[in-house]
């Protein structure tokens, strides 16, 4: 059994794939398996995978029809045999000693998760990104105190404290024993949902604060920032329902209030998606989707849970618009955010 299985879900990433794979095959930890899952790519991604497979027997290539990132990750999990599991996105890369250092920590402290920090790689600069957690070892009591109160949401317009897993090592046994899967109906947020469920079964964590092993490429270009996601709201609503089913019977940690914040955030994201530059649907169709979001069956429950709490004015105003179903006003708010505020933030980051 290899010490670590590393899964890379791939769809049309020929431009960046070699840098990603090179950073994995040259790891100082040699006892690993690298699972490259080609998710129906139409470029040369599969050929690149086959090229590496021929010269490195640690590489396994899975070639499947396109099913999305969650489907690709599940396909990798299904054949993984390592004690620990890592995930790497195909346009990212990692430091060459990342998995050796993280596995040594996992082995020394016998933890369920090891977390490192990452560097967001923009076109013209690199920005270090950290969690606000303290570094070091977290036993179950410390997880109860510092992780679970922020598991689903860390507050206004924010998802949970740990919403991705590419900068982590996960104990594979927890995934298999609890039948944890990436939610294949989700076009977005599948890793967030996965981590919420995984963390509910976690007894120990080690956080390597200040160790920036993972490089996350931020592609501020038309294929990422301006992408319109068809049926995004349907996907977000399904993720929201899955989160509710996971936490609804758990007492404590304000899970229901946390869920309410993510439900309202999902509504905001769904509405913002409709105003996207690449959404070529008619104004009537966009308004119809916003109306659908406002009438989402769980949204009223979320609004009631949140509305009486202390909130920033802009957040409460947005919730009030949702509650009153002021469709055109919500459209205008999203338009201003998409056309003015968000582009300004991108320019500041360049």
In short:
With 350 residues, the chain is α/β, with parallel strands linked by helices. The protein contains 13 helices and 10 strands.
Please explain how this structure is put together:
It is a single chain. This protein is α/β, with parallel strands linked by helices and 350 residues long. The chain has two domains: 4-217, Spore Coat Polysaccharide Biosynthesis Protein SpsA, Chain A (Alpha-Beta Complex); 232-349, no CATH class. It contains 13 helices and ten strands. Strands 1, 2, 3, 4, 5, 6, 7, 8, 9 and 10 form a ten-stranded mixed β-sheet that branches. Helix 8 (232-247) packs antiparallel against helix 9 (255-274), helix 10 (283-294) packs across helix 13 and helix 11 (299-307) packs antiparallel against helix 12 (313-324). The radius of gyration is 21 Å and the shape is globular. The N and C termini lie far apart (44 Å). The model is unreliable at 221-225 and 341-350 (pLDDT under 50).
User: Number of DSSP helices?
Assistant: 13
Low-pLDDT stretches: 221-225, 341-350
- The N- and C-terminal alpha carbons lie at a distance of 44 Å
Radius of gyration: 21 Å
CATH superfamily of the largest domain: Spore Coat Polysaccharide Biosynthesis Protein SpsA, Chain A
**What is the mean pLDDT?**
91
Q: Any idea of the CATH topology of the largest domain?
A: Spore Coat Polysaccharide Biosynthesis Protein SpsA, Chain A
**Range of helix content:** 40-55%
Largest sheet: 10 strands, mixed
- Structural category: alpha/beta
Number of strands: 10
Provide the succession of SSEs. Answer: EHEHEHEEHEEEHEHHEHHHHHH
Number of domains: 2
Query: CATH top level of the largest domain?
Result: Alpha Beta
Indicate the CATH architecture of the largest domain: Alpha-Beta Complex
